[in-house]
Design brief:
- By secondary structure, the chain is mainly alpha-helical.
- Helix 7 runs antiparallel to helix 8.
- The longest helix has 19 residues.
- The chain is elongated and about 55 Å long.
Length: 151
């Protein structure tokens, strides 16, 4: 689970460095309005940035809606974030479906997260499958985890 949080934090830092930092500020209505307008105009990165902001502030319903919109719009990282949100809300089956979708689209964080969730659920063979996919993309950390599981 620690690795999932690290991956999500890395993604948040990525968006912060590319102009999405202001959207994290809940007091910045103009930024939120700007990104909402861009999201309404089918800019899926803006939808994802708004979803991250809402998720961080505890607006699960708003975050879910925006992650879903971005995921449906093929902004695959949003599928991963939505999967994490759903897992946190206890919707394990939906979380795994979203993470599988993300992983199948070669979004390595989705594969890693799904592998971690399968390990947490005691499904070591499934965990190996998803970590192998991440390793194949390639993700060195996943390869190292996979080696440890195979011992």
């Amino acid at each position: 689970m620690k690795n999932v949080l690290v991956c999500l934090l890395a993604s948040l830092i990525f968006f912060t460095n590319f102009g999405f930092a202001e959207v994290k500020n809940p007091d910045s209505d103009t930024s939120e309005a700007k990104y909402q307008k861009e999201c309404d105009n089918k800019n899926m990165a803006s939808c994802d940035a708004l979803a991250l902001s809402k998720h961080k502030s505890g607006d699960i319903t708003g975050a879910r809606k925006l992650y879903q919109k971005a995921c449906d719009g093929k902004f695959i990282l949003s599928c991963t974030f939505l999967g994490v949100l759903e897992r946190g809300e206890g919707n394990h089956k939906l979380a795994k479906k979203l993470l599988k979708q993300s992983c199948d689209e070669k979004e390595v964080v989705g594969c890693i997260t799904l592998g971690q969730y399968e390990m947490d659920d005691g499904n070591v063979e499934l965990a190996k499958k998803w970590l192998q996919k991440a390793c194949d993309y390639p993700d060195l950390e996943s390869c190292n985890k996979l080696k440890k599981l195979k011992k």
